[in-house]
TrEMBL record:
Protein name: DUF559 domain-containing protein
Highest taxon of source: Bacteria
Sequence ranges assigned to domain DUF559 in this UniProt record: 189-268
InterPro entries given in the database record: DUF559 (IPR007569)
Taxonomic source organism: Microbacterium candidum
Amino acid sequence: MDILMMVKKHGGIVPSARLVREGAKAHLIARLVAEGELRRIRRRWIAAPWCDQQMVAAARTGTVLTCITQAKRAGLWVKDASGPLHVAAPSHAGRVAPSSALVIHWHEPLVARHPDLLADHAENVLAGVAICQPFETALAIWESAFRKKRADRLVLSRLPLNGRARELLRVARPFSDSGLESYIVPRLAWMGVRMVAQAWIDGHRVDFLIGERLVLQVDGGHHVGQQRQADNVQDAALLIRGYHVIRVGYDQVVNDWPAVQDLIMRAIGQGLHVA
């Protein structure tokens, strides 16, 4: 039995007891560790040298990757996950050593975690995000989870969510095409103007239709080259059909929102949103 292939099958890290249950011989595992083909993490875990270092960190600290760390790993839209790892520790666990490299979540999970788990369930990840992150950041992640079908609204509604998570469940929608768009609706809701996300106009989708004639397009980092040319063609077609287009980028939404809001308010003030 090829123990290295068994470890690879489990993603590069696996409890040694599980390897033994699946037929690996303990003395052969020990030999591979001694030869440097595998490494032992806190006696319980066996890892390949190429294993994901975030998973190794979770195994070493006896925790589970969660919140924005696991959201990013799962492919959800996260504005910034470059800081410390967010991990969950079971309430009955021994003390996890304080570290500037870890943000530790102690709350009870919505979905029970198996002792062999190193990466949290989606429901626990979203609950952690709701508790830990600012509302806009959390909303973008929740909407990304719905859009990518990583979480189910009905399943979440049946879980004992706290007040913050309940509010996110109420307002989150799966229609935003990127996390940046998730910021827009809450920031403009106070104006009381009808706003449709991912609206279709003449066979093309726009990020937001405000009122009847004002289009807001939010560009990510991929809007260059051919994509930029296609955007220009679409903007011209919308103009000919009587629409007004405001196109903004990532940096404007994240770092200069007052200027973006001012543009939209002035356009609405001039009635550009009215047919």
